[in-house]
Amino acid sequence: MTRSFSLEQSTNDGPEITRVAIHLLSRVRDRAKIRLAGVQVHQLERVDDSQLGLFDAAAAVADDRKRVSG
Questions:
Q1: 3-state class of 4 per DSSP?
Q2: pLDDT value, residue 52
Q3: What pTM was computed for the model?
Q4: Cβ atoms within 10 Å of 47's Cβ, excluding its own
């Protein structure tokens, strides 16, 4: 069984993606039989087209995590 949902606009909002995943799970009738659940995203876009330096990558990942987690 597969459930999917497409947002009308692009998002980088982790809580919004979580809400959609929980909503889809709530539509499953017999949750006791679920063995595996996953969330995937498509058509990712860069917000900033600039190239990161090799040593700037760790700082950028930390900043992205802060921004997504709120």
A1: coil
A2: 65
A3: 0.56
A4: 8
Per-residue model confidence (pLDDT) at position 37: 84
Q: Which helix (H) or strand (E) holds 37?
A: none
Helix (H, G, I), strand (E, B) or coil at 40: coil
Euclidean distance between CA atoms 37 and 63, whole angstroms? 28
Q: Which of 5, 35, 10 is nearest to 22 (CA)?
A: 5
Give the whole-angstrom CA distance, residue 28 versus residue 25. Answer: 5
**pLDDT < 50 positions in the chain:** none
**Position 3, amino acid:** R
H helices of 27-69, in order, are: 57-69
Report the alpha-carbon distance of residue 41 to residue 13 in Å, rounded.
12
